[in-house]
TrEMBL record:
Keywords: Signal
Signal peptide: 1-25
Keyword Signal: yes
Protein's name according to its UniProt entry: Uncharacterized protein
Length: 187
Protein backbone atom coordinates (compact mmCIF):
# COMPACT_ATOMS: atom_id res chain seq x y z
CA UNK A 1 0.00 0.00 0.00
CA UNK A 2 2.86 2.39 0.83
CA UNK A 3 4.48 1.90 -2.57
CA UNK A 4 1.28 2.70 -4.43
CA UNK A 5 0.77 5.83 -2.31
CA UNK A 6 4.30 7.01 -3.18
CA UNK A 7 3.67 6.24 -6.83
CA UNK A 8 0.41 8.19 -6.76
CA UNK A 9 2.12 11.20 -5.13
CA UNK A 10 4.92 11.05 -7.71
CA UNK A 11 2.46 10.88 -10.62
CA UNK A 12 0.41 13.76 -9.20
CA UNK A 13 3.57 15.86 -8.74
CA UNK A 14 4.66 15.22 -12.31
CA UNK A 15 1.23 16.15 -13.62
CA UNK A 16 1.30 19.47 -11.74
CA UNK A 17 4.81 20.19 -12.99
CA UNK A 18 3.92 19.38 -16.60
CA UNK A 19 0.78 21.52 -16.58
CA UNK A 20 2.57 24.52 -15.04
CA UNK A 21 5.24 24.70 -17.78
CA UNK A 22 4.40 25.69 -21.35
CA UNK A 23 4.63 22.72 -23.68
CA UNK A 24 7.35 22.77 -26.32
CA UNK A 25 4.73 22.68 -29.07
CA UNK A 26 3.15 25.86 -27.65
CA UNK A 27 6.41 27.80 -27.96
CA UNK A 28 7.35 26.79 -31.46
CA UNK A 29 6.06 28.52 -34.56
CA UNK A 30 5.62 32.14 -35.55
CA UNK A 31 4.60 34.81 -33.07
CA UNK A 32 4.04 38.54 -33.43
CA UNK A 33 6.14 41.12 -31.57
CA UNK A 34 4.23 44.06 -30.10
CA UNK A 35 5.42 47.17 -28.29
CA UNK A 36 2.75 48.70 -26.05
CA UNK A 37 2.34 52.28 -24.91
CA UNK A 38 1.27 53.25 -21.39
CA UNK A 39 -2.42 52.85 -22.29
CA UNK A 40 -1.94 49.35 -23.76
CA UNK A 41 -2.15 50.44 -27.41
CA UNK A 42 -0.15 47.92 -29.43
CA UNK A 43 2.29 48.54 -32.23
CA UNK A 44 3.21 45.40 -34.18
CA UNK A 45 6.87 45.59 -35.14
CA UNK A 46 7.58 42.17 -36.62
CA UNK A 47 7.56 38.46 -36.00
CA UNK A 48 9.56 35.91 -34.05
CA UNK A 49 9.87 32.37 -35.39
CA UNK A 50 10.76 29.76 -32.76
CA UNK A 51 11.97 26.20 -33.39
CA UNK A 52 12.76 23.49 -30.83
CA UNK A 53 16.47 22.65 -30.68
CA UNK A 54 16.98 19.99 -28.01
CA UNK A 55 16.60 21.63 -24.60
CA UNK A 56 16.86 25.09 -26.21
CA UNK A 57 14.81 27.05 -28.70
CA UNK A 58 16.31 28.60 -31.80
CA UNK A 59 14.74 31.76 -33.18
CA UNK A 60 14.79 34.34 -35.92
CA UNK A 61 13.36 37.85 -35.89
CA UNK A 62 11.81 39.51 -38.92
CA UNK A 63 11.14 43.20 -38.30
CA UNK A 64 8.30 44.77 -40.26
CA UNK A 65 10.34 47.62 -41.71
CA UNK A 66 7.19 49.30 -43.06
CA UNK A 67 6.50 50.32 -39.43
CA UNK A 68 9.89 52.03 -39.10
CA UNK A 69 11.18 55.30 -40.58
CA UNK A 70 14.76 56.01 -41.58
CA UNK A 71 16.55 58.58 -39.44
CA UNK A 72 20.16 59.64 -39.77
CA UNK A 73 21.30 60.07 -36.18
CA UNK A 74 24.87 60.56 -34.98
CA UNK A 75 26.37 59.61 -38.34
CA UNK A 76 24.35 56.38 -38.55
CA UNK A 77 21.15 55.45 -40.33
CA UNK A 78 18.64 54.05 -37.85
CA UNK A 79 15.22 52.46 -38.17
CA UNK A 80 12.86 54.27 -35.79
CA UNK A 81 9.24 54.17 -34.75
CA UNK A 82 7.72 57.65 -34.63
CA UNK A 83 5.45 58.82 -31.85
CA UNK A 84 5.79 61.19 -28.91
CA UNK A 85 9.49 60.32 -29.15
CA UNK A 86 11.59 58.28 -31.56
CA UNK A 87 12.04 54.65 -30.57
CA UNK A 88 14.99 53.37 -32.63
CA UNK A 89 15.95 49.74 -33.13
CA UNK A 90 19.58 48.94 -32.27
CA UNK A 91 20.75 45.61 -33.72
CA UNK A 92 23.05 43.66 -31.41
CA UNK A 93 26.43 44.09 -33.17
CA UNK A 94 28.18 40.80 -32.31
CA UNK A 95 27.74 37.06 -32.81
CA UNK A 96 24.64 35.71 -31.12
CA UNK A 97 23.57 32.02 -31.04
CA UNK A 98 19.93 33.11 -31.44
CA UNK A 99 18.68 30.60 -28.90
CA UNK A 100 17.07 30.61 -25.45
CA UNK A 101 15.56 28.38 -22.80
CA UNK A 102 12.31 28.96 -20.96
CA UNK A 103 14.34 30.19 -17.97
CA UNK A 104 16.98 32.24 -19.83
CA UNK A 105 15.81 34.60 -22.60
CA UNK A 106 18.87 36.89 -22.53
CA UNK A 107 19.99 36.34 -26.15
CA UNK A 108 16.48 37.22 -27.33
CA UNK A 109 16.60 40.32 -25.10
CA UNK A 110 19.86 41.33 -26.84
CA UNK A 111 18.11 41.15 -30.21
CA UNK A 112 15.38 43.56 -29.06
CA UNK A 113 17.46 46.60 -28.09
CA UNK A 114 16.19 50.11 -28.70
CA UNK A 115 17.07 53.66 -27.82
CA UNK A 116 14.73 56.57 -27.41
CA UNK A 117 15.24 60.08 -28.64
CA UNK A 118 13.16 62.98 -27.44
CA UNK A 119 12.05 65.36 -30.18
CA UNK A 120 13.94 68.33 -28.75
CA UNK A 121 17.35 66.60 -28.67
CA UNK A 122 19.99 66.38 -31.39
CA UNK A 123 21.48 63.05 -32.47
CA UNK A 124 21.27 59.63 -30.86
CA UNK A 125 22.36 59.33 -27.26
CA UNK A 126 23.46 55.78 -26.56
CA UNK A 127 22.93 56.22 -22.83
CA UNK A 128 19.19 56.38 -23.66
CA UNK A 129 19.14 52.67 -24.39
CA UNK A 130 16.09 50.50 -23.81
CA UNK A 131 16.42 46.90 -22.63
CA UNK A 132 13.41 44.60 -22.17
CA UNK A 133 14.14 41.85 -19.59
CA UNK A 134 11.86 39.05 -20.79
CA UNK A 135 9.98 36.27 -19.04
CA UNK A 136 7.67 33.54 -20.24
CA UNK A 137 4.18 33.56 -18.72
CA UNK A 138 2.19 30.43 -17.91
CA UNK A 139 0.05 31.13 -20.98
CA UNK A 140 3.12 30.99 -23.26
CA UNK A 141 3.34 34.76 -23.87
CA UNK A 142 6.79 36.34 -23.67
CA UNK A 143 6.55 39.68 -21.85
CA UNK A 144 8.92 42.40 -20.76
CA UNK A 145 9.01 45.84 -19.22
CA UNK A 146 11.50 48.45 -20.43
CA UNK A 147 14.58 49.22 -18.40
CA UNK A 148 17.34 51.76 -18.94
CA UNK A 149 20.61 50.60 -20.49
CA UNK A 150 23.65 52.60 -21.50
CA UNK A 151 24.30 51.08 -24.95
CA UNK A 152 27.90 52.32 -24.77
CA UNK A 153 28.40 49.04 -22.87
CA UNK A 154 28.30 47.34 -26.28
CA UNK A 155 30.99 49.55 -27.85
CA UNK A 156 33.47 46.66 -27.84
CA UNK A 157 32.93 42.90 -28.21
CA UNK A 158 32.29 40.91 -25.03
CA UNK A 159 35.21 39.04 -23.48
CA UNK A 160 33.21 35.81 -23.60
CA UNK A 161 31.08 35.70 -26.77
CA UNK A 162 29.15 32.67 -25.48
CA UNK A 163 27.61 34.68 -22.63
CA UNK A 164 25.22 37.61 -23.13
CA UNK A 165 27.15 40.73 -22.04
CA UNK A 166 24.24 42.68 -20.53
CA UNK A 167 23.52 41.55 -16.99
CA UNK A 168 21.06 42.53 -14.30
CA UNK A 169 23.52 45.05 -12.81
CA UNK A 170 23.84 46.84 -16.18
CA UNK A 171 20.17 47.73 -16.45
CA UNK A 172 18.44 50.38 -14.38
CA UNK A 173 15.02 51.75 -13.67
CA UNK A 174 13.53 54.92 -15.06
CA UNK A 175 10.12 56.53 -15.02
CA UNK A 176 8.17 54.17 -17.27
CA UNK A 177 5.21 56.55 -17.34
CA UNK A 178 7.40 59.08 -19.16
CA UNK A 179 8.45 56.62 -21.90
CA UNK A 180 6.38 55.98 -24.99
CA UNK A 181 6.63 52.17 -25.32
CA UNK A 182 7.33 50.68 -21.90
CA UNK A 183 6.11 47.12 -22.57
CA UNK A 184 6.75 44.33 -25.04
CA UNK A 185 4.68 41.20 -25.73
CA UNK A 186 5.50 38.34 -28.06
CA UNK A 187 2.48 36.15 -28.74
Amino acid sequence: MLLSLRTAVLIASLQVLCTSLPAQAELTGERQIYLLDGQGVEQAIGSLTIAADGDRYGYSIDLDLSQFHDHFLSMKEMKCLQGPELWCYVPYPYANPRSFTTEDLRWLEHDLLFLFKESDTFGARLWNGIYYPLHLDEDGVIRGEARALDLNLLASPPDDPSTPPVGKFDIGDFKLESRWLPDIEIR
